[in-house]
TrEMBL record:
PANTHER family, per database record: HEPATOCELLULAR CARCINOMA-ASSOCIATED ANTIGEN, RIBOSOMAL LYSINE N-METHYLTRANSFERASE 5
UniProt KW keywords: Membrane, Methyltransferase, Transferase, Transmembrane, Transmembrane helix
Protein name as annotated: METTL21A
TM region(s), chain numbering: 73-96
Domain of life per record: Eukaryota
Species whose genome carries this gene: Mytilus coruscus
Pfam families per the UniProt record, alphabetical: Methyltransf_16
GO CC, alphabetical: cytosol; protein-containing complex
Name of the top EC class for this enzyme: transferase
Any one GO biological process: methylation
């Protein structure tokens, strides 16, 4: 009679070796402030993590802070909200938006990072580009979007949103990685109504920031 003994390997959990996207939280330093951004890839997927496009846009806002200070700003498809948080810390009056499914997570992360900060002006609101535009009558000085060029089915709604929320002098900053042909197609759509200028290319992360302004006829 023989006896076989099996063993099970014990794997020690080490979050430092995980992809940044699936970590439970990430820490950043912007505007002399430590920001702890909790992530929720398991429940909300791409909507609840910090993408490189957001990091590069935060760096851009911090570098050109005078461009954003005291301006009326709205962030679209905010996800983790880090871009809107940085804009608020700079001194902008910021409306941070995303879809209803993301709203509870977004509101929680923003509040956790701004609750003890003095003189920050911000609000967190639900904005689904396909149905909520009638709730937004204000025109904004600056519109921010990090990796919002993503789902082709809502490209028309996104373009309509950019038009609806902007006045003649509004500056729209779109930070993105050009991954697919559809991304370029959206930029082509944008140029029917807005000028389009590449103002930054982070070659290490392969992220570009485009500045859009309404075409004046």
């Amino acid at each position: 009679m023989s006896c076989q003994q099996s063993s099970t390997a014990v794997v020690v959990y080490d979050e430092s070796k995980l992809s940044p996207l699936v970590k439970t939280s990430r820490t950043f330093n912007f505007v002399k402030t430590e920001l702890v951004i909790k992530q929720d890839w398991g429940n909300l997927g791409v909507a609840a993590v910090v993408w490189d496009a957001a990091i590069v846009l935060c760096q851009f806002i911090e570098k050109y802070k005078d461009e954003f200070k005291n301006k009326e700003v709205i962030e679209l498809g905010a996800g983790s909200g880090i871009v809107g948080i940085v804009a608020a810390l700079i001194g902008a009056n910021v409306v941070i938006t995303d879809r209803e499914q993301v709203y509870p997570y977004l509101k929680r992360v923003v509040k956790e990072n701004l609750k003890d900060k003095e003189n920050v002006k911000y609000s967190v609101k639900i904005l689904d580009w396909t149905r909520d535009l009638h709730k937004f009558s204000q025109k904004y000085d600056i519109i921010l979007g990090a990796d919002v060029i993503y789902v082709e089915e809502v490209f028309d709604a996104l373009l309509e949103t950019l038009q609806h929320l902007s006045h003649d002098e509004t500056k729209i900053y779109l930070s993105c990685k050009i991954r697919y042909d559809r991304d370029t197609r959206f930029l082509d759509m944008v140029q029917k109504h807005f000028t389009l200028q590449e103002v930054l290319h982070d070659k290490e992360k392969d992220i570009k920031i485009f500045l859009c302004k309404k075409i004046k006829y």
